Amino acid sequence: MLKNLVGATALVSMFSLFSFSAQADPAYTIKDGQLERPTGYREWVYVGTPVTPNDMNNGKAAFPEHHNVYIDPASWDYWKKTGKFRDGTILVKELVSNGSKVAVSGNGYFQGEYIGLEATIKSKTDFPNEPGNWAYFTFSTPDHKSLTETAKAFPAASCNSCHKAAAADDFVFTQYYPVLSAGKGKGKIASGGFESKLSNSYKN
Predict the structure, then answer these.
(1) Of 5, 83, 97, 159, which is least packed with CB atoms within 10 Å of its CB?
(2) Domain count within the chain
(3) 3-state SS string over 103-151?
């Protein structure tokens, strides 16, 4: 009897945790169609920093700066359990200029200064007619000297055509974020440090 009770309690606890992840309040606020600038996101889960510099793209890269990307904790919890982005997911992207190309370790692309902030949100309630229910926002001013307090979603078609064609998971380029791609549906293992074997194609 006690054994069954303990097992049932554990099951309920696990179900409650899973339900909380799926139904947690969103980590953003939208009022009158405007997204309020997220705060505290540097304490969320960091997923990666892609960079496509001008000097590797004939001087005309579409996004030449570093993009530091974070996902809200509840959505990360849901992702590592299910391998899916929950309704209410927000990904925040900090734009950072290319700084020095020289360091004591050698030549490379090193981050410089913060020059912008963007966000991507998945919401059936707020964006029922957008592909995948994703919408895109920028808080960066044209001169990249300051950030706006709020932002309105810009036409999703300008982003979604590329995201739909090339993104690995639900309009998100998870193939460029190893935290997301390696942690997809992996549960506790996704949090890092639990595996000894690295399954990769690395060659020295």
Answers:
(1) 5
(2) 1
(3) ECCEECCCEEEEEEEEEEEECCCCCCCCHHHEEEEECECCCCCCECCEE
Measured in whole angstroms, the distance separating CA 82 from the mean position of its chain's CA atoms is: 16
| Structural domain range at position 103 | 37-188
Q: How far apart are CA 138 and CA 130, in angstroms?
A: 17
Question: Is 85 a member of any domain?
Answer: yes
| pTM listed for this prediction | 0.86
- What are 154's two structure tokens? 């810009």
139 domain-assigned: yes
The residues near 65 (Cβ < 8 Å, ≥ 6 apart) are 51, 95, 96, 97, 98, 115, 116
Q: Tens digit of pLDDT for each residue in 79-116? A: 999 999 999 999 999 999 999 999 999 999 999 999 99
